[in-house]
Design goal:
With 297 residues, the protein is mainly α. The protein has helices at 3-33, 39-61, 69-96, 99-106, 109-120, 127-148, 154-176, 182-204, 215-242, 245-251, 254-267, 273-290. It has one domain (3-290). The longest helix has 31 residues, at 3-33.
Length: 297
């Protein structure tokens, strides 16, 4: 019986790791899809497929999908911050900037999440987490300061807005204490976010044009929806419920590592020496959090 909490924590950290890989590769898939589909359409389609994946998983596992009346508005709010705002902003961040920088700036989210959780949730920041925050801040400074010489670009601003939105959604989930099962909560949040994105698609882009599409783009969409959105969001919500916000959030710094390496190998982007130093700082921050033996409750 005493080992169960440790087992749950270990499982949650494993979920964070798997989510990091899935989401990191998802940025690369999104980059390829954006060469053919506009941002709102791309996100509405991918997140829609992710929602279908989660509802099918719930049906297969026999998980009830009912949401208590008192949690329904909470689901809508969380769906906006975690899914709709982040999804649209991250797509446009890639349109107006490089994938590598968009990923790294967007995943400064743990900084804002940990600080917001300290204020809202009264979570403690232990020495190791503070060191990770310092490393993350150093890495972001190294990456962003060169951009400031020519004025802060649109892509970077949008990526930073994504970080703030996701941080707010992460802390809100911990504060709201939604009582529904994790899978049901994830499914409804993703579906809610999808509906918001569909509205945005019709407003800003009109009717979608989904055919004909190259086979490579179809393959990217097949990954983007069920795995990059459906599975990854489920793993994220599992981590948020079972770990302190600072630990769960900082664990997501694995995503930019995977994404940057993927953008180098698959997209052809070539990070500078400054970029490499910044990425190394962020990787050290992620590793120090994921490998810590204990966490503050």
């Amino acid at each position: 019986m005493k080992d169960r909490p440790k087992d749950k924590t270990a499982g949650a950290k494993l979920a964070v790791t798997a989510m990091g890989v899935a989401w990191g590769l998802n940025w690369i898939a999104a980059r390829f899809i954006l060469e053919t589909l506009p941002p709102w359409t791309m996100r509405a389609l991918g997140i829609g497929l992710g929602a279908v994946t989660l509802f099918v998983a719930a049906a297969v596992s026999g998980m009830p999908l009912g949401i208590p009346r008192g949690d329904r508005l909470k689901i809508v709010v969380a769906g906006f911050f975690n899914v709709a705002a982040f999804g649209a902003g991250s797509a446009y961040a890639q349109v107006y900037g490089t994938t590598a920088r968009a990923i790294v700036i967007a995943y400064s989210m743990p900084i804002w999440s940990a600080l917001l959780a300290r204020v809202v949730l009264k979570e403690r920041l232990n020495a190791l987490t503070l060191a990770a925050l310092a490393l993350c801040l150093a890495g972001l400074a190294i990456l962003i300061l060169p951009l400031a010489r020519g004025g802060f670009p649109t892509g970077a601003l949008l990526a930073l807005a994504c970080a703030w939105s996701w941080a707010a959604g992460t802390v809100y989930l911990k504060w709201a204490r939604i009582g529904a099962p994790v899978l049901a909560s994830a499914a409804w949040q993703v579906l809610t976010g999808c509906l918001m994105l569909v509205i945005g698609m019709f407003v800003f882009e009109g009717l979608p044009r989904l055919w004909p599409l190259p086979g490579s783009v179809i393959a990217c969409i097949a990954y983007n929806g069920p795995i990059g959105m459906g599975l990854a969001y489920f793993l994220w919500f599992v981590a948020v419920r079972r770990l302190p916000t600072s630990t769960a959030s900082l664990g997501t710094l694995l995503v930019p590592i995977v994404g940057v390496l993927g953008s180098t190998w698959l997209v052809g982007e070539r990070p500078s020496l400054t970029d490499v130093i910044g990425f190394a700082c962020i990787f050290a921050a992620a590793a120090s959090v994921l490998l810590q033996p204990k966490h503050a409750t």
